[in-house]
Design goal:
By secondary structure, the protein is an alpha+beta fold. The protein has 13 helices and twelve strands.
Length: 533
């Protein structure tokens, strides 16, 4: 089908070229007032022109009615080209034969046949032209045609003319056949590449349209130039209304000019809030020029609701666990108090035993009060009262308090003049809890190391002991409320410490190995005012 279209198009171009050549030839005759006094047959030129015009009209008429059959089109093309070759030889005959200026038209006929019919067609027309031209030259030389020629022409001149023209026709056929073949190969390659590119473009379009994530492109001014099907569904608007609309109108949480990277926000769809996660990057062409922005976004509403539900369940589970632990911690001292009171109630015990039971009851009441106080402190912390504090002096002060009544070797490496804006009382409590843990974990006369360093954006406090360390299965639980490995511990000290560090925007890390001790590393974040001092 493709070959048939090429031949049909070539025949139309050939007809147009034939008409153009005749018009130019006739126009030159009129304009230059050419007369054929030297050529007896020159007067038949007008009939030759009329014949060409009539044939061309006939060709075009037949071309419209020819059935779509490749063989018939080829036969019709050979008919036209052979007829044109005959007419060209007639023109050469009418204009002087060997002395005619129009022998070059045979080369044009070979070129046309090579383009329309390929290499084989070019050689066939070249052969027809060479035979007809050679026959004409021979007949003119032997005076069988009424065409005179210069008396100085000898047989070698005729032979030379015939060889030159024949060689020219065949060389033209060879070169044009090669060029046409290369052109066809190139055309096929380009057509295949064009098909591949169309298929690739279609594939990309299908992928973009069918991915579950929304995708949009904008120009440099932030106007939407494309949005896919998923994007339409997420924002709840048809593509036609979104095109060339400012991206800020569609996603109010974005600012212009657009910032690259990840962002989250909300959009309203059908009166309901939708949570959207988005990533924005630059759109560049192959030369690296910025064309605009590309955004990919997802509807996170389901995920956000699921996370909220999970958090709610986690909170309920945490409350349940906390309540159970709280009840357990309260039940023990209450049981001791109850037993002591019941024994005192009998009033048959010796005085010394009564005193001992009273001491137990008072001790357990104090323990119960400590548990409730610490629990209230953990569950309902007071707002921070931050002020610029001499952290170096605060750490030294807590170390002095701990070491006064403890048989411990406390080694200090405290950087002087470290100031930070914190709640002094809460940081004091934090340091006390961590230091007490380290001291209690150390054997009699053991070593506890305390250091303080200013490390740029943070102040780092490290407390290390060389006790038995923390078991691997317990390391994740040490900051849980009411978790304690100590017999008399409430399990709230480290939980409160963790809360205090979080309130100050810092972090606390624990490094421990069984039998090698434990190290707590506390990072307190500085405020802007701390850098200006």
């Amino acid at each position: 089908m493709r070959r048939l279209r090429q031949i049909k198009k070539g025949l139309k171009v050939l007809s147009a070229f034939r008409l153009l050549l005749v018009i130019i030839f006739f126009g030159l005759m009129v304009f230059l007032q050419l007369k054929g006094k030297g050529y007896p047959l020159y007067r038949y030129i007008n009939w030759w022109i009329i014949g060409i015009l009539l044939l061309t009209v006939g060709y075009l008429y037949l071309l419209k009615r020819l059935p779509a059959d490749l063989k018939k089109y080829k036969a019709f093309a050979y008919l036209q080209l052979i007829t044109d070759t005959v007419l060209i030889v007639i023109l050469i005959l009418l204009t002087g034969g060997i002395e005619s200026w129009f022998s070059f038209l045979l080369i044009l006929a070979v070129i046309g046949s090579s383009i329309i019919l390929g290499r084989r067609g070019g050689f066939i027309i070249a052969s027809v032209g060479a035979i007809l031209y050679g026959l004409m030259i021979d007949l003119q030389y032997y005076n069988y045609l009424p065409i005179k020629y210069n008396a100085s022409y000898q047989v070698k001149d005729f032979f030379y003319n015939l060889v030159i023209n024949t060689t020219g026709l065949y060389i033209t056929a060879f070169l044009m056949g090669y060029l046409v073949q290369r052109l066809e190969l190139t055309s096929e390659s380009l057509e295949k590449r064009d098909i591949d590119l169309k298929e690739l473009s279609r594939f990309h379009s299908e992928v973009i349209e069918n991915i579950p994530s929304g995708l949009f492109t904008t120009d440099l001014q932030g106007r939407i130039t494309f949005i896919n099907r998923a994007g339409e569904q997420i924002v709840g608007q048809p593509r036609e209304t979104l095109m060339m609309k400012s991206i800020k109108e569609v996603f109010p949480f974005l600012d212009l000019p657009l910032s690259l990277g990840r962002c989250n926000g909300k959009v309203e769809r059908d009166g309901e809030v939708q949570y959207v996660g988005m990533n924005i990057s630059l759109n560049r062409d192959s030369a690296g020029r910025e064309l605009g922005y590309i955004g990919t976004f997802q509807d996170l509403t389901g995920i956000v609701k699921l996370e909220e539900e999970m958090k709610r369940k986690d909170r309920l589970a945490a409350i349940g666990e906390l309540s159970a632990n709280m009840a357990h911690e309260i039940r023990n001292p209450l049981a001791s108090i109850k037993n002591s009171i019941e024994m005192l109630k009998e009033d048959t015990l010796p005085e010394e035993t009564k005193k001992r039971l009273m001491r137990i009851a008072i001790k357990e009441m104090d323990r119960l009060n400590t548990i409730v106080t610490e629990f209230l402190m953990y569950s309902n912390p007071k707002p921070l009262e931050k002020k610029r504090t001499d952290l170096s002096g605060l750490v030294n002060s807590v170390c002095d308090m701990v070491s006064t009544d403890r048989d411990i070797n406390l080694k200090r490496d405290i950087q002087p003049d470290v100031f930070v804006t914190v709640d002094e009382n809460k940081i004091r409590q934090l340091l006390w809890n961590v230091l007490i843990n380290a001291v209690q974990a150390s054997p009699e006369g053991g070593v506890v190391e305390v250091s303080l360093k200013d490390v740029g954006f943070f102040c780092n406090i490290r407390v290390r002991d060389y006790g038995s360390g923390i078991k691997e299965e317990d390391r994740e639980k040490i900051f849980y409320p009411f978790f304690s490995t100590k017999k008399e511990g409430t399990g709230l000290g480290l939980a409160i410490s963790y809360r205090i560090v979080e309130e100050h925007g810092g972090k606390i890390e624990v490094h421990s190995s069984e039998g090698e001790g434990t190290e707590f590393s506390i990072y307190l974040k500085k405020d802007e005012a701390d850098y200006e001092q």
